[in-house]
């Protein structure tokens, strides 16, 4: 090959493309024979579906051009990736011809630059309107916030590894796990921190995924110099819930982001995105995407798989556990951890201007109410709690999720009364008595494909205009206007208004009204078939609210839940909702604590938080917890503050009545044993610690700690593939059941088993 062709740095200036580049593409398509197309598709690792399309295409060269542009292999300013590929394939003559075409057609002014400026202008105007009108809680309409006034950083975990198909997470808070987490949400957009161009942000409802995306939009619009987004040319923030029947990202941007007076066409948008130097796409709400994991072929599935915009960063936001079945294997998954104590303090100072003394009082009141304390780990709940507590202390009297939410709803209605918009009491309002509303929402949530967005006209016809107006005034339901395609009228584009609940939990509240009405019927005809429609984990609040709103139906709902695998935890929480008093479920909790209680790494935060509530009740009431087993989820023990910290960011409070802890993990845990051993030595009743699988230190020489373990008669067991071993608290060595000390050879074999050096 001629040595004067420098494939690694062949670029044109930004003014040397435009229509000339189009002529270059025409010539290039004519040059690409079937043989060249096949070789290039193998070199760039095209999917089987793409290769099949190329094989069947009437003009494979033209289709190959489209694929190469989507991947960023050829742009008006850079064709070096294509030249490198041809060099690797030893197609010297083809490479020279491509280079000649590029020289010939690369001398005219770039026409896309002006369109880029227009797109940036419209995007910034749209995003500014969104991030400048944030409602921390629904009824705050007269005092809007900008997102930067209320956004508070929360912990972000990064996926660590996969063991037997189970994801393990690390927040970076514990250096003992030898993994660095993210220090800020800005790290998500920093290629020096995360090198992959595909990122999935997971979080349970209310954990602030959408707020984070608005903060990112704010950083881009304001060109925040401390943010990696400052130098991004184009920032696309697209809510997936709107995209029913839409397969083109360019059409989606035209219809759902840009205003009607923007004269950019879909082709203009395509040219800009393909040719821009830097692009960030955020796809918000995969769990609300109408096509989800269906087989529909679209730009969005190709983007997620890594087949489009391969050289640009794409961030996908979704509910925990709801991830695409097909995605780029290089995708990095992160998860939002919710509000810890530091984040809660920050919000109280930032949004409400609370004094240090007032913050201390709020925290003290929360600590005395385990139900409220647990709920307030969820940012959405804490934000509502903080604003309501700012006005009244009555909220601290809530002793169940139902009573908390009922109080919140009363506050919403009372706020509307104070504004003079209505008369009456909260209990008299239409939405609480509207059976059509309750059934409509229940059917939407409990269906195979959840419906969380309704055409306003249809919604109004079913629930009544008075009910809809009431919900809109309070702010529980919000309107969204956007363009849709009417396929029945030659694909005419029309503007339509849709409605949705400001948060899924409000929808679950009204759905619970329908469930308790069905369960309250004399013979509960069809109750089981109705209950089967509800995912007991994803929609657990429907069950809990129903029992709290109508205690007489609790027995029937609990009976059903206990028949489900792992349903005892939710059944117990439903009983707690029924009575509002932990005293009434102590016998059930006592029975539960006689058996082993498992926390597994694949479980949702929602399920584990439910178990934590019950363990807290047990410990507070001096009920002994026989055995707690942490499988692929333990992170470290906080010796100072008392909690056991899990990999998903949840904290098990200090359990004074715990008797036996089992930690099951296959990692190298030689650096955290001091924390867990010290924690055990200080526990009131904890007698046995069992380590399953994970590598322990060869010996332990902390004489003070060994003395504490010895004086408290603590047993530390280590079960591994060589057998069962006990820590000798006299020598700090591991002994087998016969009292024989583990040899250096045996320990080296264990270290090799865990791929660790001795």
UniProtKB/TrEMBL annotation:
SUPFAM superfamilies: P-loop containing nucleoside triphosphate hydrolases. It comes from Holothuria leucospilota. Residues 198-349 form the NACHT domain. Pfam families: NACHT. It comes from the Eukaryota. This is Protein NLRC5.
């Amino acid at each position: 090959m001629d040595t004067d062709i420098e494939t690694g740095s062949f670029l044109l200036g930004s003014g040397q493309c435009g229509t000339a580049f189009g002529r270059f593409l025409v010539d290039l398509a004519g040059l690409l024979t079937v043989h060249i197309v096949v070789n290039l598709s193998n070199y760039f690792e095209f999917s089987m579906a793409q290769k099949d399309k190329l094989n069947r295409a009437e003009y494979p060269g033209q289709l190959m051009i489209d694929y190469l542009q989507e991947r960023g292999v050829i742009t008006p300013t850079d064709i070096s990736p294509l030249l490198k590929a041809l060099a690797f394939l030893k197609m010297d003559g083809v490479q020279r011809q491509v280079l000649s075409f590029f020289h010939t057609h690369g001398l005219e002014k770039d026409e896309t630059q002006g369109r880029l400026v227009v797109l940036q202008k419209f995007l910034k105007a749209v995003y500014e309107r969104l991030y400048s009108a944030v409602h921390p809680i629904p009824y705050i309409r007269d005092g809007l916030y900008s997102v930067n006034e209320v956004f508070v950083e929360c912990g972000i975990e990064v996926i660590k590894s996969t063991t037997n198909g189970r994801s393990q997470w690390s927040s970076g808070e514990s250096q003992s796990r030898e993994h660095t987490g993210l220090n800020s949400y800005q790290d998500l957009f920093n290629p020096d921190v995360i090198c992959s161009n595909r990122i999935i942000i997971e979080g349970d409802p209310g954990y602030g995924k959408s707020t984070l995306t608005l903060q990112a939009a704010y950083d881009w619009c304001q060109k925040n110099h401390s943010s990696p987004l400052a130098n991004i040319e184009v920032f696309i923030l697209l809510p997936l819930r709107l995209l029913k029947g839409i397969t083109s990202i360019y059409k989606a941007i035209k219809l759902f982001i840009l205003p009607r007076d923007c004269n950019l066409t879909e082709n203009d948008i395509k040219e800009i995105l393909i040719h821009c130097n830097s692009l960030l796409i955020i796809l918000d709400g995969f769990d609300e995407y109408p096509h989800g994991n269906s087989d529909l072929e679209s730009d969005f599935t190709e983007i997620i798989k890594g087949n489009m915009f391969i050289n640009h960063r794409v961030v996908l936001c979704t509910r925990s556990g709801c991830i695409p079945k097909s995605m780029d294997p290089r995708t990095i998954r992160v998860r939002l951890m919710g509000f810890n104590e530091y984040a809660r303090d920050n919000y109280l100072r930032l949004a409400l201007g609370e004094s240090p003394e007032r913050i201390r009082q709020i925290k003290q009141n929360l600590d005395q109410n385990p139900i409220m304390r647990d709920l307030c780990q969820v940012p959405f709940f804490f934000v509502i709690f903080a604003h309501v507590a700012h006005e009244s202390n009555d909220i601290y009297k809530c002793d169940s999720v139902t009573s908390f939410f009922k109080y919140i709803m009363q506050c919403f209605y009372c706020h509307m009364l104070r504004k003079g918009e209505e008369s009456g009491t909260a209990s008299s309002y239409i939405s609480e008595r509207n059976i059509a509303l309750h059934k409509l929402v229940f059917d939407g949530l409990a269906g195979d494909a959840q419906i969380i967005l309704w055409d306003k006209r249809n919604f109004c016809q079913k629930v009544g205009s008075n009910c809809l107006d009431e919900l809109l005034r309070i702010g529980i339901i919000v309107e969204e206007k956007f363009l849709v395609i009417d396929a029945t009228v030659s694909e005419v584009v029309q503007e339509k208004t849709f409605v949705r609940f400001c948060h899924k939990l409000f929808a679950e509240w009204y759905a619970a009204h329908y469930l308790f009405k069905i369960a309250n019927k004399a013979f509960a005809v069809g109750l089981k078939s109705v209950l089967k429609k509800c995912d007991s984990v994803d929609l657990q609040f429907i069950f809990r609210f129903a029992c709290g709103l109508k205690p007489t139906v609790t027995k029937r709902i609990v009976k059903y839940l206990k028949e489900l695998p792992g349903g005892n935890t939710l059944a117990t929480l439903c009983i707690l909702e029924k009575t509002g008093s932990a005293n009434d479920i102590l016998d059930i909790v006592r029975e539960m604590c006689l058996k082993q209680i498992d926390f597994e790494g694949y479980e949702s935060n929602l399920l584990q938080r439910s178990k934590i509530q019950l363990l807290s009740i047990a410990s507070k009431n001096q009920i002994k917890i026989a055995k707690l087993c942490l499988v692929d989820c333990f992170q470290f023990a906080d010796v100072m503050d008392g909690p056991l910290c899990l990999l998903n960011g949840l904290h098990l409070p200090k359990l004074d009545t715990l008797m036996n802890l089992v930690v099951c993990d296959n990692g190298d845990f030689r650096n955290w044993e001091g924390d867990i051993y010290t924690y055990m030595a200080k526990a009131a009743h904890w007698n046995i610690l069992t380590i399953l699988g994970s590598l322990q230190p060869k010996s332990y020489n902390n004489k003070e700690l060994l003395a504490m373990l010895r004086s408290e008669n603590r047993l530390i067991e280590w079960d591994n593939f060589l057998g069962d071993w006990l820590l000798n608290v006299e020598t700090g060595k591991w002994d087998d059941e016969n009292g024989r000390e583990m040899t250096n050879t045996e320990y080296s074999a264990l270290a090799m088993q865990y791929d660790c050096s001795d």
